[in-house]
Write a structure and sequence with these properties.
This protein is of the alpha/beta class. The protein has one domain: Alpha/Beta hydrolase fold, catalytic domain (Rossmann fold, 3-Layer(aba) Sandwich). Helices cover 34% and strands 19% of the residues. Strand 10 and strand 11 form a beta hairpin. Helix 4 packs parallel to helix 12, helix 6 runs parallel beside helix 9 and helix 9 packs parallel to helix 10. It starts with 19 loop residues before the first strand and ends with a strand. The C terminus is likely disordered. It holds the Pfam family Hydrolase_4. This is Serine aminopeptidase S33 domain-containing protein.
Amino acid sequence: MTWGKDLDVPEVFGFLHNQVTPFSIRSSSGQSLYAWHILPTGLYQKHEQGLLAEAPGHVADIITRLGFKLLRDDPEARLVIHFHGAAGTVGSGYRCPNYRALTAAEPNKLHVLTFDYRGFGRSPGWPTEQGLIADALSVVQWARKVAGVPPERIVIYSQSLGTAVNAAVMDHYAQQHPPVLFKGHILTAPFVDVPTLVSTYSVAGTIPILGPLTAFPALFDHLTSFIKDTWFTKDRLASYVCTNEAYGNAYRITLLHGEDDYDIPWTHTPILFWHAANATHKDILGFQDLAKVKDQSRVDLGAAGSVVEWKTGKGVVREEILKFGLHDVIMGNPVVTLAVMRMFGGDSGLVAQAV
């Protein structure tokens, strides 16, 4: 949490003076969403004098700010829209190092837009699945229509809960006529869906909550029937891939997970990869069958983990399983920087499994 820290003073979190502009975005539901626009360091250095001359703090009209103009008016500007995880605010935990890792991918061009969902931080309201999706769609719409950044210059990054929001957003836009496709989507520490998550979650990685009840399917199913927000990421991810494959649209997805993540077990990511891969395939592959195929093309990175890519003529789904990174520390690591660079820079050069 960020108790005792003023989010309107981002310098408290280690940013340069006026490198971050706090402002608000109106959600489609009428809620005011608290947001930060973060400039990359190289771009900041080039315009330092102009930025220092502006008044600090929360701004009522961001379109008057130099930082916003640098985003809107540069035809080469790139943007990462950031969907954070559960609890806290835009400034909590490892989120600020995460923003710095993201902007490092293009120090002179890559901006970050992050925000608090309704009920988080300084954004009023009560969080629900549909409410958070509506908020995320509103932020993306702001980036496209107000900031004027086309989707081919936008990557959507997400972590934990944010990965479920990301999956909902990507599928929503893929179903539009015509479809709206972004440069790529990065999901860090994702989960299959909430029922699966509660069956695998343990407090501090040691004390299971509902896991032992899976031995009693009727009881477990009864308890999970009370879950209101299910966040079926696996289905939305598969729908997104299937739609793009059917219509010949290019797409890129990267899944990142640490083996030492004790909040969301890393085993969720191979399951999501399996659902995504099957969405490209006419013949359904069993989980173990796909695992054998993956073993043939897996790149072993030693202590850094391993990488597998499922590559078709239209899209790439990349699975990176890190040996280390925990649930949050991973966000500030260079693997995040490199993931964004790959999205904007094209193929990774790794041997990929062709369907």
